[in-house]
Design brief:
seven-stranded parallel beta sheet; alpha/beta; 19 helices; single chain; globular; 46% helix; 411 residues
Length: 411
């Protein structure tokens, strides 16, 4: 199987280059990897220790961020290198102030793995959540480099637990320690005879809890909100918007809407704008306009949603009407906001828990939208109670970062 894995990568490389000619995202994926070696030479000082964090994309970076921040506090001279697999992570976080260097991870071939590790000479390595690259892991093990999995998730369907997944299981032996999110992951690793496992939880809770300590003021949102009830629709996809548009257009309550779509391509923003009949303004056209006169505010930029959730009376988190499912609920939850989502959330532990506890409501069709939104808007006590459930959920699940750092400081 390992031979097959290697052959697949060798075949994939030229195919990816051809695909890049027709796909903007794939072009970033391919071209971004051309600068890996020069970036490492330019950004990293070989005389200093380097801690390497690998994240699949943006969400995994956010999980690793609390660990990075604590390491920088304790060891300011230590260099933080972050590698990404996906453009959606790299393009957003390539200039993050906590990092000394950010690169794409070169494809998982033996030669790339050897070259990358030789170039970086990492003191410690952290893989985040569920990215496992056998050639990199095998080389880290051969060179006796401390390697950890943080906020790990394991599922029965993964290759590790198949009869033919022996080479993948072998790669797991590279990890000095696994810090997993839940009991099922702990149990699955024990089935494979791994005992170097700690049930630490999810570092995202620590990350979002700190959001309350930052300045979340956005003066233009204050102006738009105008002291009125506000529904924030975050990370929405067209399937979410199709379910919500009728309610936005026909709602007779004194409420405002902020929509921050997941995709901000101009054609999709235009299509969304054209479906809304109420007075609507885009973020990109907000200057020299009295925002208080508008009913709907479309945020056609990135990086503001977290702070915008601070202004929500109710949050709808998108993704739940498509696959793989709902986006991050924890950001609105930390502000004590009741949350509404679509039906596809079963793969997301925090969504499942919040629905069960009552802080989050899952809707399954367009017909439910008006009933549920209006009920919450007309019942401020219930709205507050559901928001409190969400806020407590975040606070009660903090602590993964401390657990991980305590272990690292003792070993």
């Amino acid at each position: 199987m390992f031979l097959v894995y290697t052959i697949v990568w060798l075949i994939a490389t030229p195919i990816l280059r051809v695909t890049a000619l027709f796909s903007k995202k794939m072009k970033l994926f391919v071209n971004g990897r051309k600068t890996v070696w020069s970036t490492l030479d330019k950004k990293l000082n070989p005389e200093k220790e380097t801690y390497w964090f690998h994240a699949a994309s943006l969400g995994e970076f956010e999980q690793g961020l609390p660990i990075m921040e604590e390491i920088k506090k304790q060891q300011p001279e230590t260099q933080i290198l972050v590698s990404f697999f996906s453009p959606s992570g790299y393009e957003v976080r390539k200039e993050h102030p906590i990092t000394d260097a950010v690169v794409y991870l070169s494809l998982d071939t033996v030669s790339n793995a050897k070259r990358f590790i030789k170039k970086v000479q990492p003191k410690k390595v952290f893989f985040i959540k569920y990215e496992f690259w056998p050639n990199y892991l095998n080389q880290l093990k051969k060179q006796n480099i401390d390697t950890y999995l943080i906020s790990g998730i394991f599922r029965e369907k993964q290759l590790f637990f198949k009869w033919y997944g022996g080479f993948y299981r072998k790669a797991l032996t590279a990890f000095n320690h696994f810090f997993v999110q839940n009991e099922s992951s702990l149990s699955l690793l024990k089935q494979l005879k791994f005992t170097n496992v700690t049930l630490a939880g999810d570092t995202r809770f620590d990350r979002v809890a700190t959001i309350l300590e930052q300045n979340n003021t956005l003066n233009f949102i204050d102006t738009f909100k105008d002291n009125k009830k506000t529904i924030v629709i975050g990370s929405s996809w067209p399937k979410d918007e199709d379910v919500l548009i009728d309610y936005i257009n026909t709602c007779t309550l004194d409420v405002k809407f902020i929509i921050a779509p997941h995709n901000i391509k101009a054609n999709e923003i235009l299509a969304l704008h054209q479906k809304i009949i109420k007075k609507t303004v885009l973020f990109s056209e907000k200057e020299n306009i009295d925002l208080a006169h508008f009913d709907v505010f479309i945020i056609d930029t990135i990086g503001l949603l977290t702070k915008i959730y601070a202004y929500a009376d109710i949050a709808y988190v998108g993704g739940g009407f498509g696959n793989p499912g709902v986006h991050n609920l924890l950001e609105p939850a930390t502000f004590g906001v009741p949350i509404i989502i679509g039906p596809n959330y079963s793969h997301f532990a925090e969504a499942t828990s919040l629905v069960k506890e009552g802080g989050c409501i899952a809707i399954h069709s367009k017909s439910e939208v008006e009933t549920i939104f209006n009920h919450l808007l007309n019942n401020p006590k219930e709205q507050m109670e559901k928001g409190e459930i969400c806020a407590k959920f975040v606070q009660n699940n903090k602590g993964a970062t401390t657990t991980i750092l305590n272990y690292l400081n003792q070993n």
